[in-house]
């Protein structure tokens, strides 16, 4: 059997999301200390903070908890509605500041920025039109540039915007429009392979076309058969996850080996954080999947 090319520029990690964690506090989620124990036990070195407030928010306490498990933090995550214009800046910045301060204190350099959902991921209620107006696109792109500038100046972090199902940055068309309309120096991209496939995009093509914009990776796969039913039925993202649309690799798409090889060829160090959306899930489900996924990624050279 041929050995895979070593992916020496790819830093593999996992996230609370792979343990079914979507909210700061929810009785259906595993306790944070169990997540830390299990993610370390599964063989990962890097983690994300997950929803702000899930892991301890005191930097000294969190530093101690991750260090004694030989873990390091790669990024924090925020949700933003920049398309709503300057009126939401103060509220957005208050939340971003909390997360960015903790992220920086943990030695991480990235802040993953997810656009707000246009339909509720729990109730499926339509909150806004799925397409932005030209004015809203301008608000979105200018707002993200401002966020990128302020986060770097204040906290020394780089923002990476995460295309996501049921948000306004989702399909290939929307992602390319966003990238073409923003300053590469201020705004990077977090390519989530699962979300991009969910919305019809080709991750390898995106990496090869917009390589200089790729600042971060989330690794996940979708089940093509379940996705076909989701698309045909107009099923919202939350219920789609409960159907199992995001599946354990290597059983779904896209193939992660070619994605990782394309990322390696960029010649820069990149985090590749495993995220298998499965909220809610039974507490004993995530660990065996995490162990198998880590083994699979090693077989790809990562």
TrEMBL record:
<protein>
    <submittedName>
        <fullName>Inosose dehydratase</fullName>
        <ecNumber>4.2.1.44</ecNumber>
    </submittedName>
</protein>
<dbReference type="Pfam" id="PF01261">
    <property type="entry name" value="AP_endonuc_2"/>
</dbReference>
<dbReference type="InterPro" id="IPR013022">
    <property type="entry name" value="Xyl_isomerase-like_TIM-brl"/>
</dbReference>
<dbReference type="InterPro" id="IPR050312">
    <property type="entry name" value="IolE/XylAMocC-like"/>
</dbReference>
<keyword id="KW-0456">Lyase</keyword>
<feature type="domain" description="Xylose isomerase-like TIM barrel">
    <location>
        <begin position="36"/>
        <end position="280"/>
    </location>
</feature>
<dbReference type="InterPro" id="IPR036237">
    <property type="entry name" value="Xyl_isomerase-like_sf"/>
</dbReference>
<dbReference type="GO" id="GO:0050114">
    <property type="term" value="F:myo-inosose-2 dehydratase activity"/>
</dbReference>
């Amino acid at each position: 059997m041929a050995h895979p090319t070593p992916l020496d520029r790819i830093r593999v990690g996992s996230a609370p999301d792979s343990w079914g964690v979507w909210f700061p506090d929810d009785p259906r989620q595993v306790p944070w200390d169990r997540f830390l124990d299990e993610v370390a036990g599964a063989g990962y070195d890097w983690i994300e903070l997950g929803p702000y407030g899930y892991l301890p928010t005191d930097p000294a306490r969190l530093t101690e908890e991750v260090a004694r498990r030989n873990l390091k933090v790669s990024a924090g995550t925020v949700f933003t509605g920049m398309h709503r214009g300057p009126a939401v800046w103060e509220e957005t910045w208050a939340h971003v500041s909390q997360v960015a301060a903790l992220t920086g204190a943990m030695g991480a350099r990235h802040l993953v920025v997810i656009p707000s959902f246009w339909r509720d991921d729990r109730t499926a209620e339509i909150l806004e039109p799925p397409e932005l107006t030209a004015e809203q696109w301008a608000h979105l792109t200018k707002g993200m540039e401002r966020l990128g500038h302020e986060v770097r100046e204040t906290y020394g972090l780089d923002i990476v915007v995460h295309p996501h199902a049921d948000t306004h940055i989702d399909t290939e068309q929307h992602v390319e429009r966003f990238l073409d309309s923003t300053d590469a120096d201020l705004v990077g991209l977090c390519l989530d392979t699962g979300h991009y496939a969910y919305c019809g995009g080709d991750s390898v093509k995106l990496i090869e076309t917009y390589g200089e914009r790729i600042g971060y990776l989330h690794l996940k796969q979708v089940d093509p058969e379940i996705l076909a039913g989701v698309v045909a039925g107009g099923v919202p993202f939350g219920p789609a996850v409960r159907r199992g649309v995001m599946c354990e690799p290597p059983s779904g798409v896209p193939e992660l080996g070619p994605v990782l090889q394309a990322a390696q060829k960029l010649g820069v160090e990149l985090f590749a954080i495993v995220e298998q959306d499965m909220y809610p899930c039974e507490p004993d489900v995530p660990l065996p999947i995490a162990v198998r996924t880590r083994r699979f990624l090693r077989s790809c050279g990562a």
